[in-house]
Design brief:
- A 7-stranded parallel β-sheet has the order 3-2-1-4-5-6-7, sandwiched between helices.
- The chain has one domain: NAD(P)-binding Rossmann-like Domain (Rossmann fold, 3-Layer(aba) Sandwich).
- The longest helix has 27 residues.
- Helix content is 37%, strand content 14%.
- Helix 1 packs across helix 6 and helix 2 runs parallel beside helix 4.
- The protein is of the alpha/beta class.
- It binds NADP nicotinamide-adenine-dinucleotide phosphate (NAP).
- NADP nicotinamide-adenine-dinucleotide phosphate binds next to helix 1 and strand 2.
């Protein structure tokens, strides 16, 4: 993937940061958009743009002229009984998980069309779309929309731009910190998974980097279940 330009929305921490680290280790240029800038800021292959993707617009010319891949990582985990989930919360979750991705894809689309390197878009869903889970109504609704967006855009942009989505189960990042706030909670979460571990950022980043690479040039419109077996196995 030498000399490719990849844009990672939400590449300052968590899974997005692991994606950025894997990409630069392959000598790929990365544009990172996030609200905070981290120490990778000084890396010669990384260009940071500080923005809140739900509020700020991307001005013309801010992104590379040719983009070979786009990953959208911002997301939320707000778990509450349905009666405590306000309509505003549903709106906020939809905004960060789905509308932010829509905005990013719109901003990058012309530059993605110019790529001659099997360009790809990678979005993030959650295991809670395939596997119904109590208290996940808002996030499952928002990510269900992301899965629909993935398939619809994959059809619309074929054969030029591939669009795929990764649906993780619980992964050890700051987003999941509340759910993993004690050794007991971590152990219980591990035991719930058929493969008896929770995910780490690199488990998901490896799939994202694969979906951006030429190795996946015949894959589009797919939801990749990287989830320790959670969505499909009963052991
Ligand atoms: N971790 C899990 O257990 C889990 C499970 C299922 C699905 N997922 C999904 O996987 C994806 C990645 O999750 P993660 O755990 O890596 O999340 P994370 O650790 O919270 O990282 C999210 C990234 O997005 C950026 N971001 C958040 N809001 C933003 C905004 N408004 N504007 C610009 N950048 C923003 C954050 O940077 P700043 O804070 O600097 O802006 C950060 O770089 C998400 O879509 C999540 O829903 C995660």
């Amino acid at each position: 993937m030498d000399h490719k330009n990849i844009v990672v929305i939400g590449g300052s921490k968590g899974i997005g940061l692991a994606i950025v680290e894997q990409l630069v280790s392959q000598n790929i240029n990365v544009t990172v958009i996030s609200r905070n800038i981290n120490e990778m800021n000084t890396h010669p292959l990384i260009h940071y743009i500080q923005k809140d993707i739900t509020r700020d617009d991307l001005a013309p010319g801010e992104l590379p002229e040719i983009i070979d891949g786009l990953v959208y990582c911002p997301g939320s985990i707000v778990l509450k009984p349905f009666k405590s989930l306000s309509e505003e919360q549903f709106g906020e979750d939809f905004a960060i998980n789905c509308l932010g991705a829509v905005k990013s894809i719109k901003a990058a689309l012309n530059a993605l069309k110019k790529s001659e390197s099997n360009p790809g878009i990678v979005l993030f869903s959650t295991v809670a779309v395939t596997q119904g889970m109590a208290f996940h109504a808002s996030i499952a609704a928002a990510k269900g929309a992301v899965e629909g967006l993935t398939k619809s855009l994959a059809a619309e942009f074929a054969p030029t731009i591939r669009v795929n989505c990764i649906a993780p189960s619980l992964t050890n990042t700051s987003l999941a910190a509340k759910i993993l706030s004690s050794p007991e909670k971590v152990q219980a979460a591990e035991q719930r998974h058929p493969l008896k571990t929770i995910g780490n950022a690199n488990d998901l980043a490896s799939m994202a980097v694969f979906l951006l690479s030429d190795e996946s040039k015949w894959i589009s419109g797919q939801i990749m279940h990287v989830d320790g077996g959670m969505s499909t196995l009963r052991v």
